[in-house]
Amino acid sequence: MRSRLLVLIVAMAAACSCAQAKGKLIGNAGGGEREVVAYSASKGLAAWTITDPSGEFEFSLDPGDYMVSCGGQLAPYVCIVDGKTTTINHSDQPSIEQPTEMWTPACRSFGQTYVATGTAVSGLSFWMPQGSTAMRFSLREDGPNGKLVGESVGTEKCDWITGFGLDATKFPTVPGKRYYAELASTENIAWTIAMPKGPDPYDGGIAYFDGIPHPESDLALNIGEVHPAPVTVAAAQADQHFIEKGPGSGDCVVAGQSFVATKAKNVLTMSANCGFGGGATDFIFAIKEGGPDGKVIAEKAARMVSDWGSTAYFEPDEVTLTPGAPYYFEYRRADGKKFYSYLSADTYAEGKAYRDGKEVEGFDQLFDIVGEIEPGGITYPYNVKISDITASGAKVTWDTGTAADGTVLYGEDPLVRQSVVANDDLSKEHSAAIGGLKPATVYYYRVVSWTRKEGASKAYSRISSFVTPPAGPDEPKFDKPDAIPPVQAPGPRDVAVVNGSFEEGLTGWKRCSVAKPKESKDYPIGNGPFGSANAGTDGYKPHSGKSLYGWSHLGADDPNPTVPREDWKQELIGQPIKVQPGHKYLLKAWILTGDRGSGWGRDGRVRLCVDTGNKGLLDSIDASGGATATQWFATENEWKPVSLHFTAEKDTAVIGVHFLQWWALDADYLYVDDVSVEDIDE
Q1: Tens-place pLDDT, residues 361-418
Q2: Region 530-538: what's the mean pLDDT?
Q3: What homologous superfamily does CATH list for 494-679?
Q4: Whole-prediction pTM
Q5: d(CA 620, CA 611)
Q6: Cα–Cα distance between 650 and 648 in angstroms, integer?
Q7: CATH of 102-219, one of 2.60.120, 3.30.420, 2.60.40, 2.130.10
């Protein structure tokens, strides 16, 4: 009997322990004064907070599934497990935009190929360092000769930092398909467009200058795209603020707004704003059929701070709407006290505002209702973890409350261009092994999941990083300088270039130089030449062989040591080559720039150029603006291969390398090596 009683007591204790166990939900909402809410389908509002400046939060919750809103990001069906911690990270994302400190040669049109991620193009923005002109925008499939999407549209005059919106319905795109966006002057005016300083923003994309492809470049062209997302069921947002007297003034116990369901088939969120002169207060948000006296379909508690507004959240399968049917959004304080419902101008034609069951003529409530085209399309990655990190690999795992596919994006910079599929089938648990990593290297990664439902968009986690450990024993190592490779012999299709690796000094090359210091009377620097064929300075070595061409400037050795200052030191080296008229060629070279003490746009820079018709365009710096040229490049202390496509006009073309040391800094380095030309005509 005693043993039975003991077993019963132990069982009851275990059951009580299980019943009392709670799980934790922790995370970051991305900053201060951001709302974090957890709803349970069975218990309603389970947790609510407004974050402090850190953005961090922590909830203790009963085990189960929750609809979570973290800083405005919806995460449905987040699973809380007893005794365990679940993490949602919606912290502010570091900017991954590329500095746009370079620019192109002046042309009349520029184009960019890219792979669409959205369902339409909604606008463009860009920087024009030079020129002012009205534009014609065109969108084509595949490339510059592809099928036109919609019709070309004209713009008003564009200059400096500019952009314009587009009617997205006229420029539909298919996610994953390649397109070509082109901007052309309608006034036949040459202009320049900014280029990114760092990695190309469009993976696999190609920039076009006046129709000439530049595979080594991408334009710094921000293409606005429409991405699938929850749709607005109904809204009125023309805030009338507090109305003290006259129409629209007065308090109420119950506020409401009639509306008609659109193509959305459910409700995810309902928002409204009220004033009552107090702190956090519970409200009841409800949806009714028809109007104020209709049947209640669903009710949710929402916590509101006076004048801040609040949102009630519904799980995707909780509220079903019939498109075209009338409904009523009603809200009231849970304690039954009066409040002021903020109003909007009468902008929502399908509905009316009500207070205490009476229409408020000439107004809508200030409200917003959001739903989905196909319920269950929203997902959000949580519990994103990195583990099993070795010198060559790592494992990434995460969860989604809604079944979705999964992919890990990773790379050595925040653009995370490489990928590995975790699961192509739909699942709530995701795991992927990343292989082929370098030892002792910082990697960035993020995960992405997609439910593939109609109207659903891909959900991305924040970008995080990890470091692979060194390979081999953990002991001091000393890098041995890489041996400089010998100069390569010309290829079978290479055109003869005299002394392309500068092993014989300047044999075969002609140069012109100029400097235009902003205050020449204070620090005259002469007109060059500035460069020479040499073995490199301060650890900079030739790309191949024993020599390179270029120069270094050290502020400490400057007879006029005021730095930074604008010097505008330029040099152009060129040589004529024999070609066949009408043939296509590829000018190639390796360039390197570096500096110390640089600020925005102060880097030394180099570009390639060609006088395709031997017209004297490379005889002077001023004339070189008419030559075919690449963008300016700044390589940040690394050798970078650069190429330029051109078509010969005559039997002689002149190839060139253009250097620009815009600013005198603590140190500047500009070099070129291994110049060659290949006949690529088919």
Answers
A1: 999 999 999 999 999 999 999 999 999 999 999 999 999 999 999 999 999 988 888 9
A2: 89
A3: Galactose-binding domain-like (2.60.120.260)
A4: 0.77
A5: 12
A6: 6
A7: 2.60.120
Please give the C-alpha separations between residue 72 and each of 197, 310, 380, 646, in angstroms, as whole numbers: 33, 11, 12, 51
Domain 383-467, CATH among 3.20.20.370, 2.60.40.10, 3.30.450.20, 1.10.4100.10: 2.60.40.10
Question: Which of 546, 571, 558 minimizes the C-alpha distance to 664?
Answer: 558
∠ CA 645-646-650 to the nearest 5 degrees?
160
The CATH number corresponding to 20-89 among 2.60.40.1120, 3.65.10.10, 3.40.50.300, 3.90.1150.100 equals 2.60.40.1120
Query: Contact at 8 Å (CB) between 390 and 443?
Result: no
Which of 324, 322, 341 lies closest to 271, judged by CA? 341
Cis peptide before 196 (omega within 30 of 0): no
SS percent in the chain: helix, strand, coil, step 5: 5, 50, 45
Closest listed residue to residue 39, CA positions, set 381, 306, 268 = 268
Q: How far apart are CA 344 and CA 362, in angstroms?
A: 9
**pLDDT of 14:** 42
Query: Which runs of consecutive H residues, i.e. helices, occur in 363-441?
Result: none
Q: What type of residue is 100?
A: T
3-state secondary structure of 136: strand
Residue 582 is classified by DSSP as T
